[in-house]
Amino acid sequence: MSAGKSSGTEGSHGDPHLAHHFDTPTQQFESGRLGMWIFLATEILLFGGLFCAYAVYRSNHPDIFIYAHRYLDVPLGALNTAILICSSLTMAWAVRCAQLGKQRGLVILLALTLVCAFGFLGVKAIEYQHKWKHGLLWGERFAPAGEPEHGESQKENAAPAPNASPSHSAAEAVADKAASLLATATKRKRPSNVHIFFGIYFLMTGLHALHVIAGMTVIGWVLARSLRGHFTGGYFTPVDLVGLYWHLVDLIWIYLFPLLYLIH
Protein backbone atom coordinates (compact mmCIF):
# COMPACT_ATOMS: atom_id res chain seq x y z
CA MET A 1 0.00 0.00 0.00
CA SER A 2 1.29 3.44 -0.88
CA ALA A 3 1.17 5.18 2.50
CA GLY A 4 1.62 8.92 2.56
CA LYS A 5 3.45 9.09 -0.77
CA SER A 6 2.73 9.78 -4.38
CA SER A 7 2.29 6.87 -6.76
CA GLY A 8 5.50 4.97 -7.32
CA THR A 9 8.81 5.16 -5.54
CA GLU A 10 10.83 6.97 -8.16
CA GLY A 11 12.05 10.53 -7.58
CA SER A 12 9.25 13.03 -8.08
CA HIS A 13 10.57 16.51 -7.34
CA GLY A 14 7.52 17.95 -9.09
CA ASP A 15 5.43 16.73 -6.12
CA PRO A 16 4.49 19.79 -4.01
CA HIS A 17 4.58 17.67 -0.84
CA LEU A 18 8.10 16.32 -1.42
CA ALA A 19 10.77 18.21 0.53
CA HIS A 20 13.97 19.01 -1.35
CA HIS A 21 16.19 16.83 0.89
CA PHE A 22 14.27 13.63 0.07
CA ASP A 23 14.63 11.65 -3.14
CA THR A 24 11.20 10.03 -3.16
CA PRO A 25 7.84 10.40 -1.37
CA THR A 26 8.37 6.91 0.06
CA GLN A 27 11.64 7.96 1.66
CA GLN A 28 10.00 11.07 3.07
CA PHE A 29 7.10 9.12 4.55
CA GLU A 30 9.32 6.46 6.12
CA SER A 31 11.63 9.12 7.56
CA GLY A 32 8.66 10.94 9.08
CA ARG A 33 7.36 7.75 10.63
CA LEU A 34 10.77 6.87 12.04
CA GLY A 35 11.05 10.33 13.58
CA MET A 36 7.62 10.00 15.17
CA TRP A 37 8.45 6.59 16.64
CA ILE A 38 11.65 8.02 18.13
CA PHE A 39 9.61 10.85 19.67
CA LEU A 40 7.06 8.38 21.04
CA ALA A 41 9.91 6.37 22.56
CA THR A 42 10.97 9.47 24.54
CA GLU A 43 7.38 9.87 25.73
CA ILE A 44 7.35 6.26 26.88
CA LEU A 45 10.58 6.88 28.78
CA LEU A 46 9.02 9.92 30.45
CA PHE A 47 5.92 8.10 31.64
CA GLY A 48 7.97 4.97 32.33
CA GLY A 49 9.91 6.92 34.94
CA LEU A 50 6.65 8.05 36.53
CA PHE A 51 5.34 4.49 36.57
CA CYS A 52 8.55 3.43 38.32
CA ALA A 53 8.06 6.17 40.91
CA TYR A 54 4.50 4.94 41.39
CA ALA A 55 5.73 1.38 41.93
CA VAL A 56 8.40 2.45 44.44
CA TYR A 57 6.06 4.62 46.50
CA ARG A 58 3.31 2.01 46.42
CA SER A 59 5.75 -0.65 47.59
CA ASN A 60 7.03 1.54 50.43
CA HIS A 61 3.65 2.98 51.47
CA PRO A 62 0.94 0.40 50.63
CA ASP A 63 -1.35 1.69 53.40
CA ILE A 64 -1.42 5.15 51.81
CA PHE A 65 -2.44 3.83 48.40
CA ILE A 66 -5.02 1.42 49.81
CA TYR A 67 -6.56 4.22 51.85
CA ALA A 68 -6.42 7.09 49.37
CA HIS A 69 -7.52 5.38 46.15
CA ARG A 70 -11.09 5.14 47.52
CA TYR A 71 -11.40 8.90 47.11
CA LEU A 72 -11.14 8.54 43.32
CA ASP A 73 -14.33 8.35 41.28
CA VAL A 74 -14.19 4.99 39.50
CA PRO A 75 -17.30 5.57 37.32
CA LEU A 76 -15.87 8.86 36.01
CA GLY A 77 -12.51 7.21 35.39
CA ALA A 78 -14.22 4.36 33.53
CA LEU A 79 -16.22 6.90 31.49
CA ASN A 80 -13.01 8.65 30.48
CA THR A 81 -11.49 5.31 29.50
CA ALA A 82 -14.46 4.58 27.24
CA ILE A 83 -14.25 8.07 25.73
CA LEU A 84 -10.56 7.68 24.86
CA ILE A 85 -11.07 4.21 23.40
CA CYS A 86 -13.80 5.67 21.16
CA SER A 87 -11.48 8.52 20.17
CA SER A 88 -8.78 6.02 19.27
CA LEU A 89 -11.27 4.26 17.00
CA THR A 90 -12.33 7.48 15.28
CA MET A 91 -8.68 8.52 14.83
CA ALA A 92 -7.73 5.19 13.24
CA TRP A 93 -10.78 5.42 11.01
CA ALA A 94 -9.78 8.96 10.03
CA VAL A 95 -6.34 7.73 8.96
CA ARG A 96 -8.01 5.06 6.84
CA CYS A 97 -10.26 7.66 5.22
CA ALA A 98 -7.18 9.76 4.44
CA GLN A 99 -5.51 6.73 2.83
CA LEU A 100 -8.58 6.20 0.65
CA GLY A 101 -8.93 9.88 -0.19
CA LYS A 102 -12.36 10.18 1.48
CA GLN A 103 -12.33 13.85 2.45
CA ARG A 104 -15.79 13.98 4.01
CA GLY A 105 -15.17 10.97 6.22
CA LEU A 106 -11.75 12.33 7.23
CA VAL A 107 -13.22 15.66 8.35
CA ILE A 108 -16.11 14.07 10.25
CA LEU A 109 -13.91 11.55 12.08
CA LEU A 110 -11.27 14.12 13.03
CA ALA A 111 -14.07 16.32 14.40
CA LEU A 112 -15.47 13.38 16.40
CA THR A 113 -12.00 12.72 17.81
CA LEU A 114 -11.82 16.33 18.96
CA VAL A 115 -15.27 16.05 20.56
CA CYS A 116 -14.12 12.97 22.48
CA ALA A 117 -11.00 14.82 23.63
CA PHE A 118 -13.11 17.73 24.90
CA GLY A 119 -15.34 15.24 26.68
CA PHE A 120 -12.34 13.63 28.36
CA LEU A 121 -11.05 16.98 29.62
CA GLY A 122 -14.53 17.94 30.81
CA VAL A 123 -14.84 14.80 32.91
CA LYS A 124 -11.32 15.29 34.25
CA ALA A 125 -12.19 18.89 35.21
CA ILE A 126 -15.16 17.59 37.21
CA GLU A 127 -12.86 15.18 39.04
CA TYR A 128 -10.29 17.87 39.76
CA GLN A 129 -12.99 20.24 41.02
CA HIS A 130 -14.20 17.58 43.44
CA LYS A 131 -10.67 16.96 44.72
CA TRP A 132 -10.02 20.68 45.18
CA LYS A 133 -13.34 21.27 46.94
CA HIS A 134 -12.76 18.51 49.46
CA GLY A 135 -9.07 19.17 50.08
CA LEU A 136 -7.82 16.01 48.38
CA LEU A 137 -4.60 17.63 47.23
CA TRP A 138 -0.88 16.96 46.98
CA GLY A 139 0.26 19.18 49.86
CA GLU A 140 0.65 18.51 53.56
CA ARG A 141 -2.82 19.91 54.28
CA PHE A 142 -4.68 16.88 53.01
CA ALA A 143 -7.91 17.10 54.96
CA PRO A 144 -11.01 15.36 53.57
CA ALA A 145 -14.11 16.73 55.22
CA GLY A 146 -15.68 14.68 57.96
CA GLU A 147 -12.63 12.61 58.92
CA PRO A 148 -10.40 12.97 61.98
CA GLU A 149 -6.75 13.81 61.54
CA HIS A 150 -4.13 11.07 61.66
CA GLY A 151 -3.67 9.83 65.20
CA GLU A 152 -7.00 11.18 66.45
CA SER A 153 -9.39 8.65 67.88
CA GLN A 154 -12.38 7.81 65.76
CA LYS A 155 -15.84 7.67 67.20
CA GLU A 156 -16.92 4.15 67.66
CA ASN A 157 -20.20 2.73 68.79
CA ALA A 158 -19.47 0.98 72.01
CA ALA A 159 -20.71 -2.58 72.25
CA PRO A 160 -23.59 -2.96 74.69
CA ALA A 161 -22.54 -4.38 78.01
CA PRO A 162 -23.77 -7.90 78.73
CA ASN A 163 -25.97 -6.71 81.61
CA ALA A 164 -27.15 -3.50 79.95
CA SER A 165 -30.59 -4.90 79.31
CA PRO A 166 -32.41 -7.73 81.05
CA SER A 167 -33.70 -8.92 77.70
CA HIS A 168 -30.16 -9.45 76.44
CA SER A 169 -28.89 -12.98 76.83
CA ALA A 170 -25.20 -13.74 77.24
CA ALA A 171 -25.07 -15.13 73.69
CA GLU A 172 -26.62 -11.94 72.26
CA ALA A 173 -24.15 -9.82 74.20
CA VAL A 174 -21.22 -11.81 72.84
CA ALA A 175 -22.61 -11.52 69.30
CA ASP A 176 -23.06 -7.74 69.69
CA LYS A 177 -19.52 -7.35 70.97
CA ALA A 178 -18.10 -9.43 68.10
CA ALA A 179 -20.01 -7.32 65.58
CA SER A 180 -18.69 -4.15 67.18
CA LEU A 181 -15.10 -5.39 67.11
CA LEU A 182 -15.48 -6.40 63.47
CA ALA A 183 -16.83 -2.97 62.54
CA THR A 184 -13.96 -1.32 64.38
CA ALA A 185 -11.39 -3.53 62.65
CA THR A 186 -12.75 -2.73 59.22
CA LYS A 187 -12.53 1.03 59.75
CA ARG A 188 -9.46 2.51 58.12
CA LYS A 189 -7.70 5.23 60.07
CA ARG A 190 -6.11 7.82 57.88
CA PRO A 191 -2.37 7.12 57.56
CA SER A 192 0.14 9.92 57.59
CA ASN A 193 1.53 11.37 54.33
CA VAL A 194 -1.60 10.62 52.33
CA HIS A 195 -0.68 13.62 50.18
CA ILE A 196 1.99 11.41 48.55
CA PHE A 197 -0.74 9.52 46.70
CA PHE A 198 -2.45 12.67 45.49
CA GLY A 199 0.88 14.16 44.49
CA ILE A 200 1.45 11.17 42.21
CA TYR A 201 -2.18 11.26 41.05
CA PHE A 202 -2.11 14.92 40.03
CA LEU A 203 1.36 14.65 38.48
CA MET A 204 0.53 11.68 36.28
CA THR A 205 -3.03 12.63 35.32
CA GLY A 206 -2.11 16.30 34.91
CA LEU A 207 0.82 15.50 32.63
CA HIS A 208 -1.43 13.18 30.66
CA ALA A 209 -4.02 15.95 30.35
CA LEU A 210 -1.34 18.24 28.92
CA HIS A 211 -0.60 15.57 26.32
CA VAL A 212 -4.31 15.40 25.51
CA ILE A 213 -4.32 19.18 24.95
CA ALA A 214 -1.25 18.88 22.72
CA GLY A 215 -2.97 16.12 20.78
CA MET A 216 -6.09 18.25 20.37
CA THR A 217 -3.93 21.07 19.01
CA VAL A 218 -2.35 18.95 16.28
CA ILE A 219 -5.66 17.24 15.48
CA GLY A 220 -7.20 20.68 15.06
CA TRP A 221 -4.35 21.64 12.73
CA VAL A 222 -4.84 18.49 10.66
CA LEU A 223 -8.61 19.09 10.62
CA ALA A 224 -8.10 22.64 9.31
CA ARG A 225 -5.89 21.31 6.52
CA SER A 226 -8.41 18.59 5.76
CA LEU A 227 -11.12 21.19 5.29
CA ARG A 228 -8.90 22.83 2.67
CA GLY A 229 -8.39 19.50 0.89
CA HIS A 230 -4.66 19.18 1.57
CA PHE A 231 -4.72 15.39 1.96
CA THR A 232 -5.24 12.77 -0.71
CA GLY A 233 -4.74 9.06 -1.09
CA GLY A 234 -1.18 9.82 -2.18
CA TYR A 235 -0.33 12.20 0.66
CA PHE A 236 -1.60 11.81 4.22
CA THR A 237 1.60 11.74 6.28
CA PRO A 238 0.51 14.36 8.87
CA VAL A 239 -2.74 12.50 9.54
CA ASP A 240 -0.87 9.24 10.02
CA LEU A 241 1.71 10.74 12.39
CA VAL A 242 -0.90 12.57 14.46
CA GLY A 243 -2.81 9.29 14.70
CA LEU A 244 0.25 7.55 16.13
CA TYR A 245 0.64 10.25 18.77
CA TRP A 246 -3.02 10.09 19.74
CA HIS A 247 -2.93 6.31 20.13
CA LEU A 248 -0.04 6.69 22.58
CA VAL A 249 -2.03 9.23 24.60
CA ASP A 250 -4.91 6.75 24.77
CA LEU A 251 -2.63 3.88 25.71
CA ILE A 252 -1.06 5.79 28.59
CA TRP A 253 -4.49 6.43 30.11
CA ILE A 254 -5.39 2.75 29.78
CA TYR A 255 -2.44 2.08 32.12
CA LEU A 256 -3.18 5.01 34.44
CA PHE A 257 -6.81 4.06 35.03
CA PRO A 258 -6.27 0.64 36.66
CA LEU A 259 -3.10 1.71 38.49
CA LEU A 260 -4.75 4.68 40.18
CA TYR A 261 -8.44 3.76 40.31
CA LEU A 262 -8.77 -0.01 40.47
CA ILE A 263 -5.77 -1.65 42.16
CA HIS A 264 -6.18 -1.73 45.95
Task: Name its key features.
264 residues; mainly alpha; 7 helices; 0% strand; elongated
Describe the fold and architecture:
The protein has 264 residues and is mainly alpha-helical. It is built from seven helices and no strands. α1 crosses α2, α1 packs antiparallel against α6 and α1 runs parallel beside α7. It is elongated and about 70 Å long. The N terminus is likely disordered.
> N- to C-terminal separation?
46 Å
Order of helices and strands: HHHHHHH
Name the poorly predicted regions.
Answer: 1-12, 150-168, 181-187
Beta-strand residue fraction: under 5%
The helix/strand class is: mainly alpha
Radius of gyration: 27 Å
Continuous helix count:
7
Biggest beta sheet summary: none
Number of strands: 0
Which percent range fits the helix content?
Answer: 55-70%
- Please tell me what the overall shape is: elongated
Mean pLDDT score, rounded?
A: 80
Would you summarize the structure shown here?
Helix content is 67%, strand content 0%. It has 264 residues and is mainly α. Helix 1 runs parallel beside helix 7 (237-262), helix 3 packs antiparallel against helix 4 (103-133) and helix 6 (195-227) packs antiparallel against helix 7 (237-262).
